[in-house]
């Protein structure tokens, strides 16, 4: 009589111990396969994290490596003013290729030279800004306006963009063209002469030649200077 023995649980047909990750047929169990599937997303996420960290480090190194110290103005300067070291400061910027800026290590080349234009504090210094006066440029003119306190902001400084606004009717004679209230011209402050005994501050303005001719015919007491955002159109 032939008998058939059934292998004990956890043993193979030969009676040897079967690994826990194999099923009765000797194939990887479903639990083992599920475990591998669960571990795979974690491995992918870890690999992506490593790639992102490496890429971020490369970007940071590249971006900071392109920054260089350039010369900027520490305070307002006016056209013709001779530059001193106190007028300059160094700023680290990422300049575009071909940008016309002056490196900070060339400060000695500009100290003692006159300004070719008026600029406000923080403005980056360019080669064209230093040297012979560059104003008025072709098609432009400089006109002086004498204003009293209340006709201009006390923060007004050389290099500031302004709007010169007519505040009252200007028909002073029969030959001058009348400028109605609200008429305005855009200009840039070239310089300011401190108020004298009569409290009048003389402001030199750079503006379009035609606008300068019109402005010159308006009595100063009928004008107001309004500061505009830096970087606006002239």
Task: Give a summary of the structure in a few sentences.
This protein has helices at residues 30-65, 107-110, 209-215; strands spanning 68-73, 88-93, 140-147, 161-166, 184-193, 201-208, 223-227.
Count, helices = 3
Rg estimate, integer Å: 38 Å
* Content of β-strand: 15-25%
Task: Tell me the series of helices and strands, N- to C-terminal.
Answer: HEEHEEEEHE
Number of strands: 7
Compute the average pLDDT: 76
Instruction: State the shape.
Output: extended
Terminal CA distance reads: 114 Å
Largest sheet: 5 strands, antiparallel
Helix and strand composition category: alpha+beta
Low-confidence stretches: none
Which sequence of strands runs across the widest sheet? 3-6-5-4-7
Helical fraction equals: 10-25%
Main attributes?
single chain, alpha+beta, Type Iii Antifreeze Protein Isoform Hplc 12
